[in-house]
Amino acid sequence: MPLPSAAQTVAAGAQDAQQVDVAVVGAGFAGLYLLIRLRRAGFTAVALEAADDVGGTWYWNRYPGARCDIQTTDYSYTFDPELESAWRWSEKYATQPEILRYLGFVADRYDLRRDIRFGTKVQTATWDEAAQRWLLTTDNGKPVSCRYYIMASGCLSAPKPPEIDGVGDFTGEIYFTGRWPHEGVELAGKRVAVIGTGSSGVQSIPRIAEQAAHLTVFQRTPNFAFPAHNGPQPPDRVAALEKDRADYRQQARLSLTGVPLERATEFSWQLSDAERRQRFEKALAAGDLVAMLSQLWADQGGDLEGNALAADLLRERIHAIVKDPETAEALTPRDHPFGSKRPCLETDYYATFNRPNVTLVNLRQEPIKRITASGIETDRRIVDLDVIVFATGFDAMTGAITAVHPITGRDGKSLSDVWAGGPRTYLGLTVAGFPNLFMITGPGSPSVFSNMVVSIEQHADWVVDRLMAMREAGFTAIEATEAAQAGWARHMADCSQLTLHRLANTWYTGANVPGKAPGLMPYPGGVGPYRTICDEVVSRGMLGFNLSGPDGAVQCNDGEVVRLQPDVRLVLNMLAELNLPPLESLGAEGARSFVKQFNATRPAGRPVGEIVDATLQGADGPLPYRLYRPSTPGPHPIVVYFHGGGWVLGDEQSDDPFCRDMCRRSGMIFVSVGYRHAPEHCFPAAAEDGYAALRWIAENAAELGGRLDANGAGPLLVAGWSAGGNIAAVTCQLARDRGGPPIAGQLLVCPVTDCTFDRPSYIENAEGYFLTRSLMDWFWGHYCPAADRTDPRASPLRGKLAGLPPAFVATCEFDPLRDEGIAYAEAMAAAGVPVEQLQARGHFHSSLMMVDVVATGASGRVKMAEALRRFAGMAERPEEAMPKAAE
Ligand SMILES: Cc1cc2nc3c(=O)[nH]c(=O)nc-3n(C[C@H](O)[C@H](O)[C@H](O)COP(=O)(O)OP(=O)(O)OC[C@H]3O[C@@H](n4cnc5c(N)ncnc54)[C@H](O)[C@@H]3O)c2cc1C
Questions:
Q1: pTM of the predicted protein model
Q2: How far is the CA of 342 from the centre of ligand 1 (A)?
């Protein structure tokens, strides 16, 4: 007899299945809120829950000391003000029983239990293309046939199985923190082991040590931990909430973490040692994860140097508490930046290791060989035990999703296969090839990088709102496109460059589960930006989604929702919100003073060895210059630098952060020249000043601290940004044609090279990226009469290009000047000039200048500095000598 096809099996299963519009897997924070929303929206829904009651995380994790680590003021539902007034938390960090009571209270208040099938595990899920429905099989009762299938199965709900030989041989008791018995565990008088020192270990170890006869802690990786200072809810936080509840919650939704705390804006190098310590002590006293992770200094999360300053203070504290120096050192994290792994809030954790009944075993030095019938054997010792507690964490983010196996989508594809190389999603909510499947806090959602309740509410609202809109429009299927999903992966990778998470092996990256494909799974761009992106998807016609309906109705507006670098997106949004008048409407003087004021609000830039302000001889009189000298011993090669500003704006100080940064990274002197400006001094004043400045600097190189070669002149280089890039390019041509001085290399950043406005980049980026077509028109109008614009001193692309110094040309994707920069690079290369190009994806005209604001520009500046060093014949800088940034 022929076997039935998969489609036939699905059709047969669907016949006696429970029929609903929406099936939800899980009855934790997410599942409960989904039920409320779905019911209110008029959908029939069922939640399938493996546990015997609601609660999710808080149902399963009943180990001693289990609490939340986001303050309960914030770790609560916010969708119903009446619910908020009806519940009062008793502590700053509520215990597991209290949070479980809260979720039970919510289930009762909204009468949710009648739509939940408890003790029911979903086993498989299959998309039926013909019926446009999912069929879910379960281990208990009828299958479920649904139009929409929502996994609210939790990021941290699949405990990781132990990877140690011999677990089955142990004759004592074995417990998992994530599956703790409801009746509790009697530990008094027993010899107990805890394996693992993540959040659950750090919370449970002090409580277990109080009860056990002896506790042996087996630690592979020490975590950063600092005190929770638990107690009543802090009055200031409660007052902030109660002053204006709606506003407080809205601030949380727009914040980066889902907790409305101000982030530090000063950089570590702007603070003295004493000021830094004071901030650290304040955050320590607050006992707040978000405060410690964001309120020390602005560079603590994205820059290794700034991070190390925080990490050192935390390390110092461990040594101050733990009496035995060897134990203290073993507990001290040294293999990952602070915050790259989830730090823990502790209550007596470090002090516990001073107890006589507690031993720490450092698995880095003595790995576990096996678990035996009577205990644990390491390379160095045998520990006899009555109880082993595994606090070894979870198969995070994907574990509970792929535990439903197979999830079979379109064309019979299994989700586990599709994700074999790592999870791929669009917005962390959907997967291409799996229509009508949604995940709440799936991989690619802010999830565990946020106060989860805020993310959960946003996801559930977004999903249910979409289902309602589809119903309204007559669509019955929704599916992410491959292009949108690939774009989301790129955006995730771009965001991760702004953090240090990629530098640590953690459950965030799947590194805790053997064989799991590595990659950062939570979305690191922040809950506020994430929310605006989801909203943008909707406002741009469900961008990146394929919608279809029963009568052949189809809508697909394909594309990537975020093509800008994440910090560029924030900067441009901020500028748009300021609603600034166009620069060209202010007149030259007005625009100059505006730019000066604007620049005054920038971060100050990092210190260099020395800064000297003086004058040099220009083409027609003295010109101011600012010299940046590295802190390394001189003499140094000199870079003659020309600032941007459309030949009209700016001065020798206006690119100060860039010059400092490049001076530090390249180890070269930068001399920023204050050339004459239009309209007072039109073409060719700026170009001639550029060349005159080069000559003067060459002649005075020794006095300036420049390195000299055998001919008495050191490697001299030129660089410039925007109109300054134009002057730098022109200077190279003039130096070639007028007998020197020789130039070792040219760095052109987003240079103006030609006077026409007809290249595609001018059309694509005419508006919206700060440097507009209209502004460029205004600049050209001031600088150069139309008749002179084809002169190579104005449009160097039109000059002779052979024989120019080697060049590095950087262009930005969203810049009207992009194509003329690329054209110049290509034309030089065609003329035999060695040329390197950087085409910065997702950046705008000012990106590479906005040091410490657009951190994703740092990698571009690293490449520029390396190129300058190559041009000057200097060795590549050893890694440790490079100023560290989030490159
Ligand atoms: C100890 C601990 C402390 C935490 N503290 C915080 C904190 O302070 N702040 C914070 O933001 N987050 C915290 N978290 C993260 C926490 O998981 C979330 O805040 C939140 O509880 C997740 O809710 P959820 O509904 O998405 O998932 P969960 O609460 O994990 O619920 C998912 C449910 O789905 C069920 N399920 C899964 N698969 C199936 C299946 N195939 N069939 C049937 N049922 C299934 C599970 O049984 C589970 O009950 C903590 C996590 C842990 C483990």
A1: 0.94
A2: 16
